[in-house]
Amino acid sequence: MRTMYANRGALLRVTGRALCATFVTGSLVFSALTHADGEHGDAPPTMPDPKTTYSPYLQDTFPNQVFFGDTHLHTAYSADAGFFLNRLTPDDSFRWARGETVTSSTGVPSKIVRPLDFLVVSDHAETFGLAIAIQENHPALLKTEWGRTLLELAEPDTPQAWGEVYLYWAQAFIGEDGPPEMDLSFMADMWGNATESAERYNSPGLFTAFIGYEWTSGPAGNNLHRVVVYRGDKEEADQVVPFSALESSDPERLWDWMEAYEADTGGRVLAIAHNGNLSNGLMFDDVTLTSREPLNEGYAKRRRAWEPLYEVTQMKGDGEAHPSLSPDDEFADYFTWDVGSFGPQLKTPDMLPKEYAREALKRGMQYEKSLGTNPFKFGMIGSTDSHTSLSTTDEANFFGKIAAVEPTADPIRFSEIITGRLTPDDPTDDQTHEQALAAGLAGVWARDNTREALWDAMKRKEVFATTGTRMRVRVFAGFDYVEEDLYRSDFARHGYANGVPMGGDLTAAVDGEAPSLLVAALRDPDGANLDRIQVVKGWTNDDGSAAEQVYDVSWSGDRQKDAKGKVPAVGNTVDIETASYSNSIGAPILSGYWTDPDFDPDQHAFYYVRVLEIPTPNWTTYDHVYLGVELSKKAVAFEQERAYTSPIWYTP
Fold first, then answer.
1. Per residue in 434-448, pLDDT tens?
2. pTM higher than 0.90 for the full model?
3. Full DSSP string of 86-113
């Protein structure tokens, strides 16, 4: 009883204070509603005019936020994930991306450092959800000998058994006799499960769960994959089962399907081309895939319309530039995968110009001069292509490419062969998991975190790629900027009002004026300081050739350019034995104003920004410390993570 009364006394004291505060507040309100002469009025004479405009943001419509996410993630619904012991579903992927702890397929708990803003679960369209259908004994599989054999092979539910399932499944598509009779009606049910998961975790304004899939074209093992991203919801997406490479491996047929989908459903879709470094020169070829005809204006217009984005960096290497194509760029050789594909054909030097983004952007301008349309006019994003259901891009939290190489001291984490399997007698085209890049992410400038706002930003190419870091980068180009604009309090508003952002177009240069760029970069709050900002320019010459140059625009510290115009290295604080680094070098924020010193108003040109961080440990170095394994022989011990913005094009 004493305790009860003691609590009651405390309650009375608190209540008394609250009543007193209420009385005082009420007195103030009463006074405010009383005229100076003591009489009460119907409305206070000091109320503002209802037509008064005060808030400066009422008319703003420009993108004012950057959102980070992954547009390329596989779950157990992909055959090459589910058959390799991935047991996590799209639900698990969305939960992990939203910040929840998820236990991986091999039993290792995992959590992201900060939630992502959006995610596209993009499982392979080909036999979509087959591993799940097998586990559920889907009735469609009992209707054919092919399906019944899959069920029998998987029944032991061991790694060896699922390996047999994979081999039997693969043989159906590469055998000389063609695929056997199969009932794929299970795909509609599996697709419905996937779209339902996206609906369940989509929270407009908080987290965007996109509907998507990957069309997995791989003629002769050469990678021509595209991720298809839907703007709309389950009701639209469920009307049509995803288009599969089993129906056609030609991207032009994918575009036909996309066009028909939009016409039939009223929805919107776009395609993101896969990093082309494993395409053996087919990703940006000079001829069409099936007919082998030279590219024409119709092809250029369709590719540009349906494929506004390119995945420039991911786990299987970085595709921005190649050192042999850009020999004067000291940062071009970054996780370069250039010796193989998924097929038996070896890589040759003539394939490289048709695989890397910078070269494709240059060739695209050449095509525009001859065809009137640029077929390779794309924005750049990064994504993971992880097959673990987890979008891990943090070097200290890297769960690998597939479930078999999730964190473990077992040598398989490093020696697992990714390319070169079909040439076992020739190790020159082997690329192994220890060479994998813990990348990447897409940065999207938009006003709201919704499917519609983010998709629209992707469509207009106002996006940038990172190799996993969440640094922020903003760039504007125009003919009327001055250096003082860098310091404006309304930097973004002024940038949009007087120029164009990343992904935009400049035209009609004023006589005697060259375009200027305003660039601002901010480090990842949980990451490393910045080394430098660079502008990469490409242009066409009068003789029809194309050229490029990389300009250092802003850099940390008091470094000075050398005789060749190069800024010295920023330094390196990485301690390999502790897998640590220090932000005692570099800068948390960099900005720069740059005017093209060699501008020719009669030449086509593009400009994009590359921002480099200071050196930090590679994931293999963290494994060396965390797991006690030897340092990888093929992998680098440290790296300089980076971001690439979408280009800004100038057209005469």
1. 999 999 999 999 999
2. yes
3. ----HHHHHHHHTT--EE-TTS-EE--S
